[in-house]
Amino acid sequence: MRIALIGLGEVGRVLAEDLVGHDLTAWDVKFGDAESAPIRNAAAVNIRPSPSAEAAVRDAALIVSAVTAANDLAAAEAVAPFIAPGAFYLDLNSASPGQKKASAAAIDGAGGRYVEAAVMSPIEPKRIAAPMLLGGAHAAAFAQIAAPLGFAGLEVYAEEVGKASATKMCRSVVIKGVEALLTESMLAARAYGVEDRVLATLSNLLPSDDWQKLAAYMISRSLEHGERRAEEMREAARTVAESGIAPLMAEATAARQDWAAGFRDALSGETVAGMADAIRARMPVVDISTELREEAPQRKVRA
Question: Which end of the chain has fewer beta carbons closer than 10 Å to its terminal beta carbon, N or C?
Fold first, then answer.
């Protein structure tokens, strides 16, 4: 089977490695930069970078879109004029239901078969076999040809495009939100020397075998992948807004995730205390007492 990968970042590379043995092509908007990660990934998986979307998808029976959330629709629109009639287009991107529906219209309108996919776990360790919710009129047909390729975690979830994405995005409000909350809470708690007690008391309401381990893991995810998580949370905010709700928490989470990405080297701290200390050592010293006094009347009104 000829398979075209649109986007050769972290997820695209995993797909290329797991689909070895098939006729693979790839296109990424960063292929023009000889020092970019997609170019390095192409060399690592022995794929010749295609010069354009048209060249990558020509005669492909399956096109897999694994781009950044903000580029979900742009990728579909770049591919649509050149997609082969009846070719499947698997959209793995963490985008809002509105973006997914627009992408589906572009692909289906050009004669392709759009399939929405929501990846419901980190891509590692299951990789191509990670759990995915499928949506759209062509989801069931795609599942039949995808299982032999190694997509072992597929669930045909909805005939309507958007429901799978809404499920993932609403879940992200919680999961990425907890990451952001733990990061902020532990940074403050460490300053007061109470981080161990705070984590210990969380089990009263939120049972966990090891809150120290869980908190360290979740904070590390923000530090390592904060930029990508922030982008996903902006899509989560869009999802919440599309439902008619002001996305106050999703937007705040996006801001904290974006902020955390600037302290990636704090991963070397490993533990909650170690990472918090590494972050705080690099944080600018700010006297917020004046700011708090100035904001106090406004906060009182809002309360």
Answer: C
Q: What three-state secondary structure class fits 89?
A: strand
Here the CATH number for the domain that contains residue 96 is: 3.40.50.720
In terms of domains, do 176 and 152 share one?
no
Number of domains in the chain: 2
For residues 221 and 267, the answer to whether their CB atoms sit within 8 Å is no
Query: Residue 293 belongs to what H/E stretch?
Result: helix 289-302
What confidence score (pLDDT) does residue 21 get?
A: 83
Q: How distant is the alpha carbon of residue 38 from its chain centre?
A: 17
3-state DSSP assignment of residue 131:
coil
CB burial of 75-89 (b: ≥16 within 10 Å; e: otherwise) equals: bbbbbbebbbeebbb
What's the angle, vertex CA 188, arms to CA 186 and CA 190, rounded to 5? Answer: 65
Single out the residue of 236, 223, 239, 241 nearest to residue 180, CA to CA. 223
Which CATH number does the domain housing residue 205 bear? 1.10.1040.10
Instruction: Give the confidence band of 34 by pLDDT, cuts at 50, 70, 90.
Output: confident
Spatial contact of 75 and 49, defined as CB atoms under 8 Å apart: no
In this structure, the answer to whether residues 147 and 206 fall within a common structural domain is no
Burial of 259 (0-12, 13-18, 19+ CB in 10 A): middle
Task: Provide the whole-model pTM.
Answer: 0.85
Q: Which of 58, 54, 59, 56 is nearest to 12 (CA)?
A: 56
User: Are residues 131 and 152 both part of a single domain?
Assistant: yes
Looking at residue 48, what is its pLDDT? 87
